[in-house]
Amino acid sequence: MFKKWSIRLKILMLGVAFLVSLIAMSVALIARFIEHSTLSHARMSVTLTSQLLNLAIVPYTTESQIHILKDYMDEMVGRKRSMISYLLVSDGHSILLSAGQIPHPLPTPTRLDRLRQMPDVLHVRQRILIDSDHVGYVQYGYTTRALTSYRKELIRNGILAIVAELLLAGLSIGLLSHHISKRIQYLNEAFLAIANGDYSRRVLPTHQDELARLAFLFNRMADALEERMNALLTSRTETQQLNASLEDMVAQRTRELSSANMRLEKLVTDLRHTQNQLVQSEKLAALGQLVAGIAHELNTPIGNALTIASTLEVQDKNMQQRMQAGPITRHDFESLLQLHTEAMDLLGRSLQRASSMIHSFKQVSADQVSGQRRQFALDTTIQETLLYLAPSWRKQNVSIESDIAADVLMDSYPGALSQVISNLVSNSLMHAFEGIAQPSIRLTAQIQDGQVKLIFSDNGCGIASEHQHRIFEPFFTTRMGSGGTGLGLHICYNLVTSHLGGRIELLHKNSPGTAFLIVLPLVAPRTISPDTPILEAPDV
Q1: What pLDDT does residue 35 have?
Q2: What integer pLDDT is reported at residue 367 of this predicted model?
Q3: Burial per residue of 334-357, b for 16 or more beta-carbon CB atoms within 10 angstroms, e otherwise
């Protein structure tokens, strides 16, 4: 409602409110001052009256002169315009003399030489001392009606004066608000003229106040607006001329953009083909690394088997030579038989280990190449993957610790999971351990709410904060030209999110080393096809 008031009304109402507040405060202060002055005057009169009464009464307190004191008291109470309404003398036990109308019950001050204030009357009790002996007291009533009437008259006159000032101030405020409102109305009409297109309208300043300053600024605005409108009319003609030539330019640019779009589509197709080739190269590189790993691991059991076979061949030739030279003893034959038994046991275990490794290699390679879904034990798949990567991480003296329960069974894509682990290990070996004295990698897994939470971490140099938001982008690498393609973590992201139906994220972004959290369902989504493309940009 206040927002809808005119400025004139607002000034008037605010002025009236201020004056009313000022008057109220003034009336309250004046009333308090008058009341305090009246009471102080009454107290001074009472003190003086008490002293006079004490001096007048003491000489007539003897029995022979008590009647004189009675006449004196009647004269004081009955005197015209007397301020004493009653007067009594007491010995402390009973009233000896009294004059005027004694109130019943008799108001009693709390102590002698004190007064008690009641409406229109001050009740005063004063001790009577003769030679410093207390022989009684005198009590009288001091009327304050005249003082009260005088105080009310002063307050009434003050209020009338203040009201007169209020009316004069209100009239002044009204005239001032009317003057201001009239000048504002003149400015308002000028603004309406400008809004209706009369850009030549100006306001003539007649004063040197804020409204005159506003009129000056209005004139400057009108000058600038008129100048711009003239320039706008000039530019409109030029714009119309440009529009004709612009249409021809747009048509020509449209043809050029269509041609560029066709070239761009072809370029995108070629780029996707190149990307797919790079992904296949990454997969073949991983498979090659797998082959190198199994070859390295097979070297030990097969080498042991060859050594055992060579040893048996040498011992058999020695035995044949000894048999041709003469008879052999039972001890020599039993020694040779014992050697054959131990050798065959070692040979069987070595060949059994080689056979097991070849079987695992066939399974892992088949998983990575075919991408088929099957049930598998998580710890077995990860251990086999780390085994075939052993030549790489052992070459750099990296220790790998795996803490995965043996009873975690998954129905998913082991080839995709093996490739994710392989890419993470390769990424750490390439980027993490430069200048690290004791490099290490740790894999842990736990089941929670029907999901596997796999954490891959290393104690390397970590990832710079400005690179963390781009690590899953394709072709982003800090080792371009040094063996890095920028596809390792990108392939991990897409394999985890599309094939395995999980998620992968970077942990401990501000801590030393690097840690990835991989959350996978125990049973991969059935709707995921192993042929789903893995070269899609992640939303990171």
Answers
A1: 65
A2: 53
A3: eebeeeeeebeebbeebeebbeeb
**Selection from 487, 6, 114, 120 nearest residue 274 by Cα:** 487
Give me the percent of the chain exceeding a pLDDT of 70: 74
Name the more confident of 523 and 207: 523
DSSP alpha helix (H) spans, 58-113: 66-78
Report d(CA 348, CA 342) in Å as an integer.
10
Q: Which of the 8 DSSP states describes residue 481? A: T
- pLDDT of amino acid 392: 78
Q: Find out whether 446 and 378 touch, Cβ atoms under 8 Å.
A: no
Model confidence over 97-133: pLDDT tens digits?
A: 788 888 877 777 665 455 555 567 777 877 776 666 6
Residue with tokens 């990424």: 427
Q: What are phi and psi of 137, to 5 degrees?
A: -150, 160
Integer Cα distance of 218 and 291 in angstroms = 87
Tokens in use for 440? Answer: 């290490």
DSSP string, 401-460: EEE--TT-EEEE-HHHHHHHHHHHHHHHHHHT-TT-SS-EEEEEEEEETTEEEEEEEE-S
Measured distance CA(260)–CA(268) in Å, rounded: 12
Average pLDDT, the chain: 76
DSSP assignment of 138-190 equals EEEEEE-HHHHHHHHHHHHHHHHHHHHHHHHHHHHHHHHHHHHHHHHHHHHHH
Q: Which two tokens stand for residue 75?
A: 């004269």
Q: How many residues does the chain have?
A: 540
Angle, vertex CA 245, rays to CA 244 and CA 246, nearest 5: 90
3-class SS of residue 223: helix
Query: C-alpha distances in angstroms, 390 versus 168, 460, 532?
Result: 104, 18, 30
Query: Which CA distances in Å does 483 have to 432, 477, 479, 480, 496?
Result: 14, 10, 7, 7, 24
Q: How far apart are CA 398 and CA 432, in angstroms?
A: 11
Cβ neighbours of residue 404 under 8 Å, at least 6 residues apart?
A: 378, 379, 382, 443, 444, 445
Residue ranges of alpha helices (H) inside 326-405 are 330-370, 378-388, 390-395
Contact by Cβ (8 Å): 454, 446 = no
